[in-house]
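Fresh eyes needed here. Have a critical look at this protein's tokenised backbone.
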Amino acid sequence: MERKKNKSKLAAQIQRTINMPVKKKREYDGDMGRVISTGSTLLDLAISGGRIRGGGLPLGILVEIFGPSGCGKTVLLSEIAGAVQRSGGDLTFFDPEARLNQQFARIFGLDTTKLDYKQPNTVTELFQAVRAWEPRSKKDINGIFADSLAALSTDLEIDNKDGDKMGMRRAKEFSEELRKTCRVLANEGYLMVCSNQVRVNVDAGIYGQKYTTPGGESVGFYSSLRLQARKPSEIKVKEKVAGKEISRTIGVQSEIRVFKSSIWKPYRTASISILFDYGIDDIRENLQFIKDYTKNTMYTLGGEKLAVSLDNSIIMVEERNAEKELKEEVIDLWEMIESKFEVDRKPKQR
């Protein structure tokens, strides 16, 4: 009874905070089918929260995660790969950088003994293997992962002593291979997620785009979803050891922007916290989201006060096994906020 009162109180508080009337229940798109979580509630919502409750990644598409070094691209990709495997699906993992290790993979629930693991050298080698891949079962969610596209070379670069000086061959190969591969992804219902670096665009000039991704424009053209990871900030904690206060960086916080989307509305952003040896800390961001938008002085759950400290509030949520309850509260709040920006006009006369 007390919990119901707290929830009613929270709903009323949210209404006052964002100053809007309650609208009818959101209607969702039944064509989305099954989706995979990114490991972040807020990012799932930013990707497709308007089409399916809770959002997430649909199947049959190419996703590019791009950004500078150290912004969490590999962690995000690995979180998605772990979600595919936990769902009972099959996955293949392409590692051109040859740096995936078992200890890192276990953080995200990845069983490396069940991975179809490859280390391709060239663009053609990777995409030919993608098209030839046959998962054990086509009834489950199946995923293809590549980390990262920037590490791929070309036969010309490997065999020719002069190499591919202008990088034109690699761009051409990406374009040729993606034209054929995207049809396979759509027809077979595979989710393909790739990470990519950003490089300084020396030909940008004064008004051009300062940064670009390797491989020309084709990866961006053929991706149904492009997620841009921004330069991260450090998450630091202080502890007293032998009477001395010591500070350590325990993770990073990155902002992920939906740079391009054919799934739902683009240009939504979501903050993700990544802790070393843990992965994406969804509880941390969810608690902060509620606090920010309800203007509470303390962190809360279901209208009930937890603590002033974020770290202490996280512990309290975990002790209560209330992660799902917290997630549902965030989704409700997000939907309420998003409804304020819906276009309320009659259909356009065409």
Observations:
- The first strand starts at residue 35 and ends at 36.
